[in-house]
Amino acid sequence: MKHQFLIFRSLIALFFLLMVVPFVSAQGQAKESKATWIWYPGDFEVWLSNKMQVRRTEREAVFPPLWQYYSPYALVTFQKEVDTSEPDEVKIYSEGTFQLLLDGVQVYGQPKSIKIPAGKHKISFKVYNQEVLPAIYIDGKHIKSDSSWIVTNEDKLWIDENGKAQQSGTPWVPVGSWNFDSPVNKPSGFKLTTQPLNAQKTEKIGTGKLVDFGKETFGYIKIHGLKGKGKLALYYGESREEALDTAKCETLDHLSFDGNQAETYTHGGSKAFRYVQVKADPTIQYDSISMLYEYLPLNYRGAFKSSDQLLNKIWDVSAYTMHLTSREFFIDGIKRDRWVWSGDAYQSYLMNYYLFFDSASVERTLLALRGKEPVTAHINIIMDYSLYWFVGVYDYYLHTGDTKFIKTFYPRMKSLMDFCLKRRNTNGFLEPLEGDWVFIDWANGLPKTGEVSFEQMLLARSLEAMAVSAKIAGETEDQKEYQKLASDLKTKLFDVFWDKKENVMKHQRIDGKMQDIVTRYANMFGIFFNYFTEEQKQSIKSKVLLNDKILQITTPYMRFYELEALCAMGEQGYVLKEMKNYWGGMLHEGATSFWEEYNPNKKGAEHLAMYGRPYGKSLCHAWGSSPIYLLGKYYLGVKPTAPGYAEYEVKPNLGGLQWMEGKVPTPNGEVALYVSQSQIKIKAAEGIGKLIIDSKSKPKTNSGIIVELAKNKYQLTVQPNVAYQISYKAL
Fold it and tell me: Which domain holds residue 631?
């Protein structure tokens, strides 16, 4: 029982919570009311990611990803057993040619509809498509393609000597679907939304023009009033400097026109930019430049506003940055790389839960990253990125309550974990083998060889997530195995890397010899993983997190976790100053979206350089949006404590603000909150909340009962759809 309690503590109620809330499907209700396109689960995401991730260019050269590509299954079989009380005329739409069997008997031809008699029947479609993913849309009065259908890529079916269909050992899985709910809205035709956007300023530069759209943006350049025959060049820049540097700008287009083109020309390739320099031959004339802004339509369900105007601006720019990088998938940056990276995506999932709460985007990204069998390398070839993937699956479950994803894709979870476990050394620790990239962070001088404590901590967390997933999938023996592996690894982690004299986690062991190196990474992750005792946390806070002599973090990527660890220890006042200095520093430098890296010590064009290139840095990078997460979870203080927000905690912390207000989205609603030094207002749409209040005296409420937890600490149970007004005295 003691062991179970410790696991409960370390995983935010991981195992207890499994039985708290019923399954809430992200795909819709159990009984579908409308038809939708269906496919083999994960194949749409694989196909779409393949298309999307080859769009990166550098100076007109294609720059494809570094890792293995997978393909959709070219031939799949869809199946459904139905029982209708009356005959049904069923319309058939297919992405690919198909074979149709009704009750095991082939229906010849490629019918556009079929009459299904009343009674029980088995309908099977075997669909082939080598160009895009095989998919079907079936629409009748009663019989429709929806999430209740099953699909296989191994249809072991034959016709016996009596002409009857026989099927044996076929692995069926639930179909995949999204929001393609009309026959003309095919999966293969998916496109992001566009809208016209005019330039804010155009100025003459030498023989050309510099067009300024006012802020970082993404989309397709449009040329209006285009006439003549000749060449025209476009030089894109996230900065003015880049757009003006024709020799070294990262993205450009050289266009040729024969004089017969339309007067309004729209370029077919999407780009990231704020500025575009246009240079045209004297034989080419045009009136103006605009663009089609391209985006994924998402609702801003989260919100934040406070007494600090700079902080409000930081939240707004963070939200815009997050939206720009929330595309077909959660990508890293919109100029470079335009790829799906697991470490970047993991942070995007967390920020998404406090801004959009778009479950479908999380699912798509997880599936695009995982790909299919066999596993031949780590996700994105990075060891830590494979591990973030597992934790991302658990966090998705915690926030949404959706068990269907885990039940469907547990085999892919297991095979990836098998691969990771085989990469351990004889000591049971992960150690990079040939082909393994240990990333952690871009910090200068960060050692990454041998046994690194940070990787072992991520593996322990991943094993804990696997134990939860195994239970959901009904794999009891796997659950026991992963629990033991996680427990044993955590014990070994502390035995080897915890310095009992200094009370900090050491960074690295090489050939059995501990290196005298302390870094922030394992220390800060262990805080919000709740792997440390309170005494250990306090030691780490003073000796590591607040110690300037420890290797500094200069990317928003790891600042995310550093500031989260400090917030988890109640240092919101300190973190508020850090956010205003760090993200406010980027705003001071003219940022309209947040960057891949920011070093306050750099000046001018130094801020644009990275990877040995003068404009290599991404000036719109998803991991720069972390204030969304920090402000939602640790200032407004809202977080789920049971899957799908069946239970949640609200622990507001002003951190020096006079007041703040905001909304944190939940699966089917939101938690709305206002907090000042003397008043709290809260209303939630679902679940049972625990409002934790720090107050000099016992608070008063218009509804419910406030109980004292400890000195100056009180609790109010928040029921759904009740507007609470609490008066208190902030500490």
Answer: 300-635
pLDDT at position 549, please? 95
- Token digits for 622? 């998803």
Q: Which of 594, 613, 624 is nearest to 63 (CA)?
A: 613
Distance of CA 322 to the CA centre of its chain: 10
Q: First and final CA of the chain: distance in angstroms?
A: 37
| CA 481 to chain CA mean position, Å | 28
- Cα distance between residue 186 and residue 96, in whole Å: 12
- Alpha-carbon span 577 to 692, nearest angstrom: 24
Do 513 and 612 belong together in one domain? yes
Section 549-565 average pLDDT: 94
**pLDDT tens-digit readout, 35-91:** 999 999 999 999 999 999 999 888 988 898 989 899 999 999 999 999 999 999 999
Judge if the upstream peptide bond of residue 374 is cis by omega within 30 degrees of 0: yes
Same domain for 79 and 157?
A: yes
Paired sense of beta strands 508-510 and 513-514, if any? antiparallel
The neighbouring-strand residues paired with 191 are none
Q: Domain with 670 in it: what CATH number? A: 2.60.420.10
* Per-residue model confidence (pLDDT) at position 19: 33
651 and 573 fall within a common domain: no
Looking at residue 157, what is its pLDDT? 80
Tell me how far apart the alpha carbons of residues 648 and 638 are, in angstroms, rounded to a whole number.
7
Pick the closest to residue 173 from 154, 145, 186 (CA basis).
154
Q: Give the H or E element holding residue 346.
A: helix 342-353
Q: For 305-333, how does the pLDDT look when each residue is reduced to its tens digit (9 = 90+)?
A: 999 999 999 999 999 999 999 999 999 99
Cβ–Cβ contacts within 10 Å for residue 31, how many?
8
At residue 623, the 3 state secondary structure works out as helix
Considering the domain architecture, whether residues 244 and 382 belong to the same structural domain is answered as no
* The total number of residues written for the chain in this structure: 731
pLDDT at position 160 is 81
Give the helix ranges, DSSP H, for 553-603.
Answer: 556-568, 572-588
**Alpha carbons 180 and 364: distance in angstroms, whole number:** 14
Q: Do 486 and 545 belong together in one domain?
A: yes
In the predicted structure, residue 466 carries a pLDDT above the cut 70: yes
* Within a domain: 590: yes
Contact 533, 541 (CB under 8 A): no
For residue 429, the model assigns a pLDDT of 97
Question: Helix count (H) and strand count (E) of the chain?
Answer: 15, 38
